[in-house]
C-alpha cells in the first residue's frame, strides 16, 4: 500500500459552537484545528473519514452535518477526521483537484466512516443517488473497518 499524507481535523480541539456559528474563519485568531496525518495510519481506531453532504455556508462552517460528525467522532473516541474540504486542497482546479479527490476517496476503503447526509425535505434515496455520495457508499461497502 502506498503512503500519503492528509490534513485532518483535530476532533478534541474543535469548538463545536464556534464551528456551527461560523466563528472559525480565521478572524479573532480562531481557525479550524488541523494536523497532517500519514496514511496508512498506525492505529486505525483513531481516525475516520467523513462522508457528508455540504450544507453550511462556506463549505463546512455552519454545517449541521459536520457538527454531527464531530459530535459522533468524540463519542467514538476518534481523534482525527478526514473531511474533503480540509483534506483536499480547495485551491486546486481541473485535473489536479480531480486527482486529489480520487486519491482521497481511497480512504473510504481503509478507515472507518462517519456518514452525515441530513437535509431537510430530501429523502435518503435522493441523497444517496448523488454521484459523489453514491461512489463513497460503493467504496465503503468494501471497507473492512
SSE topology sketch:
Layout lengths: L3 E7 L5 H5 L13 E6 L7 E6 L11 H13 L3 E3 L1 H4 L6 H12 L6 E5 L7 H5 L2 H10 L5
Parallel strand pairs: 3-4, 3-5
Antiparallel strand pairs: 1-2, 1-4
List the defining traits of the structure above.
6 helices, alpha/beta, five-stranded mixed sheet, 145 residues, single chain
Describe this entry's structure for a reader.
With 145 residues, this protein is an alpha/beta fold. It has one domain (4-140). The protein has six helices and five strands. The chain has helices at 16-20, 64-76, 84-87, 94-105, 124-128, 131-140; strands at residues 4-10, 34-39, 47-52, 80-82, 112-116. The protein has a five-stranded mixed β-sheet with strand order 2-1-4-3-5, with helices on both faces. The chain is globular. It starts with a strand and ends in a 5-residue tail after the last helix. The model has no long low-confidence stretch (mean pLDDT 77).
Amino acid at each position: 500500500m502506498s503512503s500519503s499524507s492528509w490534513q485532518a481535523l483535530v476532533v478534541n480541539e474543535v469548538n463545536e459552537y464556534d464551528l456551527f456559528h461560523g466563528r472559525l474563519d480565521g478572524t479573532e485568531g480562531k481557525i479550524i484545528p488541523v494536523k497532517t496525518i500519514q496514511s496508512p495510519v498506525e492505529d486505525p481506531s483513531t481516525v475516520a473519514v467523513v462522508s457528508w453532504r455540504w450544507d453550511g455556508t462556506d463549505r463546512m462552517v455552519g454545517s449541521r452535518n459536520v457538527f454531527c460528525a464531530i459530535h459522533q467522532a468524540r463519542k467514538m473516541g476518534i481523534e482525527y477526521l478526514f473531511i474533503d474540504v480540509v483534506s483536499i486542497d480547495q485551491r486546486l482546479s481541473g485535473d489536479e483537484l480531480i486527482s486529489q479527490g480520487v486519491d482521497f476517496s481511497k480512504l473510504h476503503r481503509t478507515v472507518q466512516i462517519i456518514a452525515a447526509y441530513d437535509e431537510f425535505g430530501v429523502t435518503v434515496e435522493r441523497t444517496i443517488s448523488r454521484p459523489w455520495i453514491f461512489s463513497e457508499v460503493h467504496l465503503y461497502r468494501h471497507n473492512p473497518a
